Amino acid sequence: MDSPTNVQYGKRLMPVMVDEIAAETPDRVCFSIPRTIDLKAGFHDITFQTFANAINKTATFIEREIGRSSMFETVMYMGLQDVRHFIVLFALMKTGHKVLFSSHRNSVADHTDLTKRTDCGIILYTNGLSCASIIEASRMESLCMPELDYLLDDSKHTDPYPYTKTFDQAKLYPCMATQTTSSTGLPEPVIWTHWMLATIDGQRLVPDLDGRPTVWNKFFDSSERCYSGVPLCDSAGIVTALMEVLLHGCTVVLGPPSNPTANAFEQVVTYGRVDAASLLPITLEEIASSQTGLALLSRLKYVACVGGKWMANFLTLRTTDQRFAGSLSARAGEILSQHSHLYSLMTSAKSGALIQHATDREDWQYICINPKYSDIEWRQRGSLYEPVLQKSNDLAKFQEIFETYQRSKELSMGDLYSKHPTKPYHWKHEGRANDRIAA
């Protein structure tokens, strides 16, 4: 996909982009969802016109029930794994609130602690997901989300509900809260601004590195329908899908609302007409042991491993379900990379997505980090290296994180990496340098 020269990359507001695309190309498909729990029934494509209308319906519903906010008040959303995560995100932006996505693997105490630390007094939930214990423990007001069928029914149109701020006005406005965790075991909220989301859009302006395009441009532009098998309550799932839909014109295909498994992957690829996938290490491990899964993987242009060891550490701390414990093994990675181009994505709730470049197929364990536009100092720790972000006025458009931590001149990612034996700028994640774990 060519990049128009008149587009203000890195200075676009996502709720505005949705409405603009809906007006200019209303029939463009943004999401595709299962028609029923039986994926053999096929998938229903959602156009931007339908998506924008659903957002407007939800914003109108929220204003009617709880009013608008002038202080970016927090509303927790607990919902099934469906497109309403994105609808709620943009609807709350339009009403002046910010959404809190709390991991479904959190305990009640974790949920409650997050609501206290974000001054959250309202929970918005979907039918089919039990939230009674959270509501009782936190003593929040509760509001049931409209059913998906109603929101996606274009015959029930609603008036436009525009987002009227410019990028310069809204760039530092909080728009979403996700979470990290530390060795204390309690989740820590991370507040995303519009600018933090826009920094990934700005990566369109980054030139190739030794002939390697940025990862976001390389494979997202090559895909038409990408299966998202990452939980939407986690920042990696919601942000990666937004990048695909809004910045790269890709249709995000969602699977069943249950946990992502190899079986779900096989059904989505078989019946969802996907040509790429973003998956957790646990799902990829299962696929590596399935002849059917590997055969279907060979149909894909690429598969992105979203998580890695930092996600594995987080999931191990947050749940007793051992399916979520562990990162992608070398054995599984070698098998998978023989069937499709496997990429590792480096993301963090604190720093967003760093500027990565495409890697060769055999280097699936490595990330290729731009030395100029990322402005990372790799500090040696024995035989390994710790990446430390350096604040740079010249790179402010890619470093929104320093608006959040204005007093800091540098920020450690808290990870340790080893160098590629021959290729410059290639780094392999080896573990954590401290007790902070990104999610």
UniProtKB/TrEMBL annotation:
<keyword id="KW-0597">Phosphoprotein</keyword>
<dbReference type="GO" id="GO:0016874">
    <property type="term" value="F:ligase activity"/>
</dbReference>
<keyword id="KW-0596">Phosphopantetheine</keyword>
<feature type="domain" description="AMP-dependent synthetase/ligase">
    <location>
        <begin position="19"/>
        <end position="311"/>
    </location>
</feature>
<dbReference type="InterPro" id="IPR000873">
    <property type="entry name" value="AMP-dep_synth/lig_dom"/>
</dbReference>
<dbReference type="InterPro" id="IPR042099">
    <property type="entry name" value="ANL_N_sf"/>
</dbReference>
<dbReference type="InterPro" id="IPR051414">
    <property type="entry name" value="Adenylate-forming_Reductase"/>
</dbReference>
<protein>
    <submittedName>
        <fullName>Amp dependent ligase</fullName>
    </submittedName>
</protein>
<dbReference type="Pfam" id="PF00501">
    <property type="entry name" value="AMP-binding"/>
</dbReference>
<keyword id="KW-0436">Ligase</keyword>
